[in-house]
Design goal:
Shape: globular
Order of helices and strands: EEEHEHEHEEHEEEEHEEH
Number of strands: 13
Structural class: alpha/beta
Largest sheet: 7 strands, mixed
Number of helices: 6
Helix content: 25-40%
Distance between the termini: 31 Å
Strand order of the largest sheet: 5-4-1-6-11-8-12
Length: 233
């Protein structure tokens, strides 16, 4: 199984005051830090290695997660440093320890899918990147993906159109060489790279049928907390 990069460096302003002095990764969800729930799930899926890309309060995450043995896998860290690097810059900095190909998972998402099937689809698509997508139809957020015949025709955070009925599900498989066109250092967003890949016909898509859960907002946090309390009751 490919390694998984988890983007855990943001300021989580939408969760304040909960995150005034706490990173989003450690926000309790049904009495357990969210990142441990993510790692538990990855371990059960057969993932052996994860890289946490940290920034805001990253030392707190390291103190809780440690080397990952608490969740049955090996965890390494890539730290933004003095300035937050954004989702794209954080992954670019982590490339030396991620290797040639890897999953990327948002640090506020809990997904319900089989990683092995996504990895297989990536290897079969003969493209340098694959994005999981969900037929959102504007329900969870503004739909921003035009998806047809297994390819992301266009991904755009800035210009959502009526024909865009899908949304980024929160997981991608990337080849390190797609970062060759990016600035060697500095902050940038993965969504910019996804847009460039889509319009150059280099971004495959994998449709997921099960909804996702997220803790990026107070409403999403409450819903995710309820979900785990129900499944664990």
């Amino acid at each position: 199984m490919l390694p998984v990069a988890i983007l855990s460096g943001g300021l989580a302003t939408r969760l304040r005051p909960i995150t005034d002095a706490l990173p989003k990764a450690l926000v309790p969800v049904a009495d357990r830090p969210f990142v441990l729930r993510q790692l538990d799930y990855l371990g059960k899926q057969g993932v052996h290695r994860a890289v946490l890309c940290t920034g805001y309060c990253g030392e707190q995450i390291e103190a809780v997660v440690g080397d990952g043995s608490i969740c049955g896998l090996n965890v390494e860290y890539s730290r933004d440093g003095d300035s937050l690097l954004g989702t794209g810059g954080a992954i670019q900095k982590a490339l030396p320890i991620l290797g040639r190909e890897f999953f990327v998972l948002y640090g506020d998402s809990f997904l319900q899918l089989e990683l092995s099937l996504v990895e297989r689809a990536y290897h079969e698509c003969d493209l340098p990147a694959l994005l999981t997508v969900y037929h959102n139809k504007g329900k969870w957020d503004a739909s921003n993906v035009l998806f047809e015949d297994g390819k992301v025709i266009e991904y755009s955070k800035e210009q959502s159109r009526s024909e865009m009925q899908y949304i980024d599900y929160g997981l991608a498989v990337l080849s390190a060489n797609i970062f060759n066109c990016c600035p060697p250092k500095g902050a940038f967003d993965l969504t910019t790279l996804y847009h460039q890949l889509s319009i150059s016909h280099q971004l495959a898509g994998y449709e997921v049928l099960e909804r996702f859960y997220e803790i990026g907002s107070l409403e999403g946090l409450a819903e995710t907390d309820e979900y785990f309390r129900l499944v664990e009751s």
